[in-house]
Amino acid sequence: MQKKTSIKQWIALTAMGLGVFMGLLDVTVVNVALPTMAKDFDTTFTNLQWVLNAYTLVYAVTLLIASKLGDMFGRKKIFVASMFLFVIASAVNGMATNLLVLDIGRGVQAIGGSGMMSLSMALVASNFEGKQRGLALGILGSIMGISTASGPLIGGFLVENFGWSSIFYVNVPVGIIAVIMTIIYVKETPSYGKGQRIDLGGMVLSAGGIFAIIYGLIVKESHPHLDWTSFQIMGWLLLGVVLMIIFVIVEQHVKQPMVDLSMFKRAHFIGIILVAFVLGSAMYAYNAYLTALMQNYIGYSAVQTGLRQLVMSAWSLILGPVVGILGARYSKKWMIITSLFIGGAGFIWMAQAVGPAVSFKAIWPGMVLIGITNGMVNPLLNTTGMEGVIPSEMGMASGLLNVFRQLGTTVGVVGLGLVQDSKYEAYLSNHLGSVKMPAQALAGLKKALIDAGPFSGHGIAFSERLSRAPFAKAFQQVVVNAYDKGFSAVSLTAAGIVIVGGIGAVILLKNHVEGIDLTDKKN
């Protein structure tokens, strides 16, 4: 007979939700603070890239390590330690007087964020039972979805009113409250690593492989005109692949491996990590391009952009608990598949709606459809990802889902960026020649636009000096059209990703309607 859920369990969920919210919010919230940071540190956006990249890299690299340590020694212990580290690093970041301190602080902060994120799902699964587990995981999925999408709104409000340091300082009181609540109310899981040796080789190889792959993609993102075959990119990617191959070989011969590779023999689990990758590469990566459209081209401020994006992000808050309840009664497989196809329709709408006179009125229906997808898939991914996983491997299963979601986001940002750059540059090459202006000026401006890229091209075309030129209107029209072509291509690419992901889910996912299998037997 299922026990009644107590108020203490819901307080425990609140504590874990706060940790997840802070960890994921800090992936995106810094973006809107970069202009203010550049002014205060008297530096360029290029030099500020590592404020973002340090978090992305370290976060991805440490997800699996934190998951394994939690499985072995108690997830609550590692979760609390991670949260404490996150709070300390946030305080240091807020006080940073130079970029080196801030970059290092962001890396340390990412270690804490990865620990909170990787263990939250497994902790929720072990603190709730039966139908209430599905509801709790659904709520956690809502928090994941809305934390990522609300970065521009929260970050914009804090930066405009309290300065860039406030985006870090706000984590301190919230984190302290969450630590206290976790210590008091969250139930510890068994230490499955008693008497086991830590697989240091597996940890080093997995961390090195993930680092090399993501670093190679970051280099490509920062230097889009570098060829894939260049040593700076291909060298890192090949190193990552080689290290991951060695990792797989080593794990097959270790008595107590970091990752039980038999998890990848289950088609259902492969389907789940595929959906996680799709969610990152289409949904999360697309947010950067949507924010650029609304701020750089439509002209909204960070706060105005965030407020309008509520039509997309609010669905995570609304649908999470509902999906958790429905998932206990209906096929989660087909709910995920249907949601992905809804997202595909939303991206197609966005591709058709964008144009020279684009406004929020034209794009909000597409944003709603995309938001519904994110609001449904995230909670379902959490619940379905835990099905059939034995208790000792729940932390690792959660870590793998988050690694593939983060890897998908990085691949998506790079891939969508290359699509946009290609269409943008092709349109400029084919149409700038029709603008009546001196050939030397045309060549110089074309090079400046391509070097700046689609995000910054608008600022060049509509600069005060250029706007006074007799050819300004025709030139600006070409730049806007080039951006529109690129953004439409990005939207259609994202649509293709989620549709292919939906087809993959049809083939791989199983109809798990029953609850999570908590027996400690291999499936």
Automatic annotation (TrEMBL):
Bilayer-spanning residue ranges = 12-36, 48-66, 78-101, 107-128, 135-154, 166-186, 198-218, 230-249, 269-289, 309-327, 334-351, 363-381, 487-509
Keywords from the named record:
Cell membrane, Membrane, Transmembrane, Transmembrane helix, Transport
**All copies of domain Major facilitator superfamily (MFS) profile, residue ranges:** 12-513
- Name the source's superkingdom: Bacteria
Keyword RNA-binding present in the record's keywords: the answer is no
Molecular-function annotations in GO: transmembrane transporter activity
InterPro entries in the record: EmrB-like, MFS, MFS_dom, MFS_trans_sf
Against CDD domains, the record matches this protein to: MFS_MMR_MDR_like
Please state where this protein is localized: Cell membrane
Q: What is its main location?
A: membrane
Would I find Membrane among this entry's keywords? yes
What is one GO cellular-component annotation here? plasma membrane
Q: How does it sit in the membrane?
A: Multi-pass membrane protein
Q: Which family does it belong to?
A: Belongs to the major facilitator superfamily. EmrB family.
Tell me what this protein is called: Major facilitator superfamily (MFS) profile domain-containing protein
Q: Which species is this record about? A: Secundilactobacillus malefermentans
